[in-house]
Amino acid sequence: MHMAGISTRSLALPLVVTLTCGSAALAQGPGPAVTTLLSDPRLQQARAFIKADHERFVRELVTLTEIPAPPFKEERRARAYLEMLKEHGLSDVEMDQEGNVMGVRKGTGGAPMLAVLAHLDTVFPEGTDVKVKREGTRLMAPGVGDDTRALALMLSVIRAMNAAKFTTAGDVLFVGNVGEEGEGDLRGVKFLLQRGKYKDRIKRFLAIDGGDQGGITRGGVGSKRYRVTYKGPGGHSYGAFGLVNPAYAMATAIARFSDLQVPSSPKTTFNVGVVNGGTSVNSIPSEVSMDVDMRSESCAELKKVDDAFLAIVKGSVADENRARSTREGSVQADPKVIGERPCGETSTEAPILKTTAAVVQAFGLKPTFSVSSTDSNIPMSLGIPALTIGRGGPGGRSHSPDEWTDVEAGGVAKSVEVVLGIILAVAGER
Amino acid sequence: MHMAGISTRSLALPLVVTLTCGSAALAQGPGPAVTTLLSDPRLQQARAFIKADHERFVRELVTLTEIPAPPFKEERRARAYLEMLKEHGLSDVEMDQEGNVMGVRKGTGGAPMLAVLAHLDTVFPEGTDVKVKREGTRLMAPGVGDDTRALALMLSVIRAMNAAKFTTAGDVLFVGNVGEEGEGDLRGVKFLLQRGKYKDRIKRFLAIDGGDQGGITRGGVGSKRYRVTYKGPGGHSYGAFGLVNPAYAMATAIARFSDLQVPSSPKTTFNVGVVNGGTSVNSIPSEVSMDVDMRSESCAELKKVDDAFLAIVKGSVADENRARSTREGSVQADPKVIGERPCGETSTEAPILKTTAAVVQAFGLKPTFSVSSTDSNIPMSLGIPALTIGRGGPGGRSHSPDEWTDVEAGGVAKSVEVVLGIILAVAGER
Question: Which of A216, B319, B390, B397 has the fewest beta carbons closer than 10 A?
Answer without folding.
Answer: B397
